[in-house]
Each structure stands twice: as C-alpha cells, then as structure tokens.
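We modelled the chain as a single entity of 105 amino acids. Its sequence is:
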Amino acid sequence: MPYVKRNSGGDIIAVALDRTPGHEEYLAASDGELAAFSSAINLSSDSLRDSDLDMIRVLDDLIELLTAKGIILFTELPESAQAKIILRKGLRQNRSPSLNLLGED
C-alpha cells in the first residue's frame, strides 16, 4: 500500500509503505505516476553504480601509479586493503591482459 509525499509542484518526492505524516496520499501500486517515480529512482541508482565502478578503476590505476613511482609503499596500506588490491589486480589480469595500463615495469 504505497503512500506518497509530493512537493509544491505536485510531483512525487517520496514513497512510504505506511501512512505517516507527510505520506498521506494513497496510490495503487499499479498507478502510472508511481511507476514513473520508481523508474526515475532506478535510473539514478544505475548511473551512480556505473560511476562508482568507473571510480574504482581510477583508484586501482592511481594506487598502481603511486606505488610504481615510490610515492607510497604497498606495504604501508592496511593488510585488508592489500589483499583486496591483489585480488582485483589478479582478476583484471585474468580477464583482459590488455587492460594493464602501466606495463610490467
């Protein structure tokens, strides 16, 4: 039973399962307006997830670069971080050796 909260323009800005202050208008789960709101939320989540994946790749390469230049020592990182980096490096090399942007030096 979705209850919606609207902004001053009448657009849905939040949904709750129970009727609470601010969420007092009931809409059927099949309502088109509710479906559009849900789709917008999912698109936003997908974009953020894609951006996160891209940033992870940048951070992988940044750590490689900083350690290759001797700016940081790999052993200075926490052991849990070292293990995760080693795992990701292995997965990336197994998946596509052509992704090695820094070479073997």
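As a brief sanity check on the tokenised model: The beta strands are 3-6, 12-16, 25-26. The helical segments are 32-68, 79-95.
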